[in-house]
Amino acid sequence: MAWFRAASSAARAALRRNLSHPPHRTTRVLPAPPPPGARSFHSTVLCRKAQAPTAVPRPVPLSRLTDSFLNGTSSVYLEELQRAWEADPNSVDESWDNFFRNFVGQAATSPGISGQTIQESMRLLLLVRSYQVNGHMKAKLDPLGMDQREIPDDLDLALYGFTEADLDREFFLGVWRMAGFLSENRPVQTLREILNRLEQAYCGTIGYEYMHIPDREKCNWLRDRIETMKPREYSLERTEVILDRLIWSSQFENFLAKKWPAQKRFGLEGAETLIPGMKEMFDRSADLGVENIVIGMPHRGRLNVLGNVVRKPLRQIFSEFDKKKHRDEDGLYTGTGDVKYHLGTSYDRPTRGGKRIHLSLVANPSHLEAVDPVVVGKTRAKQYYSSDQDRTKNMGVLIHGDGSFAGQGVVYETLHLSGLPNYTTGGTIHIVVNNQVAFTTDPTAGRSSQYCTDVAKALSAPIFHVNGDDVEAVVRACELAGEWRQTFHTDVVVDIVCYRRHGHNEGDEPSYTQPKMYQVIRNHPSALEIYQKKLVESGTVPRGEIDKINNKVETILNEEFNHSKDYTPIKRDWLSAYWTGFKSPEQISRIRNTGVKPEILKRVGEAITSIPENFKPHKGVKRVFDQRAQMIQTGEGIDWAVAEALAFATLIVEGNHVRLSGQDVERGTFSHRHAVIHDQETGEKYCPLDHVTMNQNEEMFTVSNSSLSEFAVLGFELGYSMENPNSLVLWEAQFGDFANGSQVIFDQFVSSGESKWLRQSGLVVLLPHGYDGQGPEHSSARLERFLQMSDDNPFVIPEMEPTLRKQIQECNWQIVNVTTPANYFHVLRRQLHRDFRKPLIVMSPKSLLRHKDCKSNLSEFDDVAGHPGFDKQGTRFKRLIKDQNDHKDVEEGISRLVLCSGKVYYELDEERKKKERMDVAICRVEQLCPFPYDLMQRELKRYPNAEIVWCQEEPMNMGSYHYIAPRLSTAMKSLGRGTMEDIKYAGRAPSASTATGFLSVHEKEQRELVEKALQADPISSPV
Ligand SMILES: Cc1ncc(C[n+]2csc(CCOP(=O)(O)OP(=O)(O)O)c2C)c(N)n1
Ligand SMILES: [Mg+2]
């Protein structure tokens, strides 16, 4: 079994980039001694190797001579460098100049190294550098010893012209501004010493990959910690802590295996050192200022992490294995629940250093890695709410499997958020539980990269590969990762190379597919056995002491098991501190008005339409802002963008945080928002919504263009929205169809998260949707998919009486297709003006952004009784907009009621005017889900003789037809107005593609469906 992916020839060639030398050897024999006098680093030295062709010195362009020390590679190049420096010290990079000066100075004063040439010293540097770059290739990382990696030639002493005879010679190494072996403060060492330390530091049980980081300070920081004078050892006290933790980790799995042998738990066996590693990482991070850690992890080892790291009470974990016990709590909302290895939780945990740290493990779906961006978003939100500006108090930790880290694209998308100003969290720590298999798939079939962690190199993150059998090395790597994150505030990866003792889950037979690996595993001692043996044999901890700890742990596990039998689950824990007082679906939340005092509307309206005096916007933007100012002044003709800005501004005035993210959201895909404007002379930016209140916190309103990702960005915003309910968090898709790139987040989190995990979110998703003739890819946000995932029963009319109504609370989410700016304003504000949170999917408009009739008056936004838009309940979101003609409660003369949703309304209304069809009423269903039964029934009663038509612009198999029809028919049946057969359809025919690519066809189709909805004769058949 190769735990790494065998390097391709191309990769091997790349590994050899350090030196220009002949083809590689696979044996590791030292070559014959160099010819007499061959003390300097000539290419002839390399040619001594058997079959090696004579290397022809290549000319080195002068420009390369100015390369810095760190980039110097080829032998010819080194010679050229030396010559150039001797001729003119200024002709080489400062780092080389310093090196040569240092060398000359040192050689003159140190008798021990007087025989050393500059070229020898330079070759030694290359050797050290090769270990830094490629030492990990020789590191003993695979606990099973099955790796078949070729050790790169670069690590061969002979390659640099040294022989065994040189081993006890002293060499000068010190280099200006370098740390570790190359630092100036310990310049003279024998070659043997140097080699020994290189091997210990880089080829032991930790393989460090960091030389891809283009930052000398960071590399030096690592070298200081890796290239220590002596290998680091833990004190007895620390050793005992590590042992204790490893015993807990191992016994926990054994205990579960013994008690519940038939239950799936995705045990950690083979990777037990993860637990002491994580605990050390958290302790060290707490010492360095971290107070909160948000954790995301997959199935494997989750229960162990919950019990031993997060400290979820063991009795509770054990009680959850008891199936009988976990029926619904009487009268309590428990949702549909989820399997135990997906559930989240949070606890305060004391650390070894005497601090307390808050840990939250985010609930996750089975979809591997989908939780990554959610964790990062939640971490970012925690940083906002705790004013953690330097991002050192709140940290995200993600645990991955080797297969999923390499295979799932969302890993890359999430990594790429890490450095973006509005998404960074100051570094996520990634731990890969690299058990060298993914279900039944070997790494050779699972990835094209050498390591499963290579994707993180794109970020210049350091990667520490560590042998999972060496618990102290795992602890060391984890500790170092914590230190790195707190020092440099960027991502870091710990790759624990381990194995999976059993099958994929406890019932799976691994030998079907990995027979050889499992032959080795069967006879392989556990990490705990290895550690215990080592401690006993070295006399560090006596056997009796170890037995004592084992007995203690076993006793506690048994006690907890006994307590688990009468453990009563504590009332659900879905309300964290910020959520206190928020209602679950079983508790009624009062319906509130969302209108705003006129004076506030005016005040914020002025703030969001003013541009500072000296600011020079683009003249097109200036025109837009002038028009906006006019709208506020006159109170008329408010358009979509202004309505949205008013919603944001009024929520901010009320103390809420507003965050809008997505691709190009600052300007707006359709150039309608202009939330951030740009000075045409200085390039400076100005965001009017940052200036709504006095001394407004810069981040209180955040609008941010995102990376070109849907999955990670939506996941991030969802995580963000879950932290604190007093925030309006919105994700906008560029076009609605691109939302399918984040389908996992919709399916697994947004639509079902509350039901599975009892966690609420008020996330708003804006999905541009509408048939404007732009072709199949930019017309549909696939409304039907969202509707299909809605869980309101199409055949049951719920309680609709306003004081008793819980319809929205009981539904999984809300889906709207709003047609007026004022209604958009209210639906956004409604998100926060209620005592619960529910995701909101908005089919947002494109053509309506500038439609002449899609305007509202400011009076529709205010809370003044009697103003237009104010009905007997006040001003609030209208789930259904009745016909705009002044119809009475009963209109017997109306022969047709056309029901529709979204922008087609304006086309229907125009056609009606054109045809002077005063006998047709048109109602807009603004909230499709949950279905507004009460208002629909009101309209059905108003038009007792009307034929009922559902009009949509989407094809019949898309849009809302299939969602509306059964619900509308339920409403009709309840009033004796017919059945499904009586619902007439005016819309596009079923289609595979969402829309035609031909404008003329689009126009014809659109004309036909509008005409059909308003045709003079009754519509004969339903479709
Ligand atoms: C997105 C996704 N695809 C497929 C699966 C099915 N699946 C569950 S675990 C697993 C193997 C994961 O391998 P790895 O990431 O190495 O983790 P391990 O199980 O080895 O700890 C697979 C394919 C899944 N859960 N999620
Ligand atoms: Mg795996």
Automatic annotation (TrEMBL):
Top-level taxonomic group: Eukaryota
Key words, A-Z: Magnesium, Metal-binding, Mitochondrion, Oxidoreductase, Thiamine pyrophosphate, Transit peptide, Tricarboxylic acid cycle
Compositional bias of kind Basic residues: 17-27
Species annotation: Apostasia shenzhenica
UniProt domain Transketolase-like pyrimidine-binding: residue ranges: 638-851
Role played: The 2-oxoglutarate dehydrogenase complex catalyzes the overall conversion of 2-oxoglutarate to succinyl-CoA and CO(2). It contains multiple copies of three enzymatic components: 2-oxoglutarate dehydrogenase (E1), dihydrolipoamide succinyltransferase (E2) and lipoamide dehydrogenase (E3).
One GO molecular-function entry: metal ion binding
SMART domains listed in its UniProt record: Transket_pyr
Protein name: 2-oxoglutarate dehydrogenase, mitochondrial
Annotated region (Disordered), positions in chain: 17-41
The keyword Transmembrane helix is annotated on this UniProt entry: no
Keyword match Glycoprotein: no
Family (UniProt): Belongs to the alpha-ketoglutarate dehydrogenase family.
Source lineage: Eukaryota, Viridiplantae, Streptophyta, Embryophyta, Tracheophyta
Obligatory cofactor(s): thiamine diphosphate; Mg(2+)
GO cellular component: mitochondrial matrix; oxoglutarate dehydrogenase complex
Catalytic reaction annotation: N(6)-[(R)-lipoyl]-L-lysyl-[protein] + 2-oxoglutarate + H(+) = N(6)-[(R)-S(8)-succinyldihydrolipoyl]-L-lysyl-[protein] + CO2
EC number(s) given by UniProt: 1.2.4.2
GO biological process assignments: tricarboxylic acid cycle
Location of this chain's protein in the cell: Mitochondrion matrix
InterPro entries: 2-oxogl_dehyd_N, 2oxoglutarate_DH_E1, DH_E1, KGD_C_sf, ODO-1/KGD_C, THDP-binding, Transketolase-like_Pyr-bd
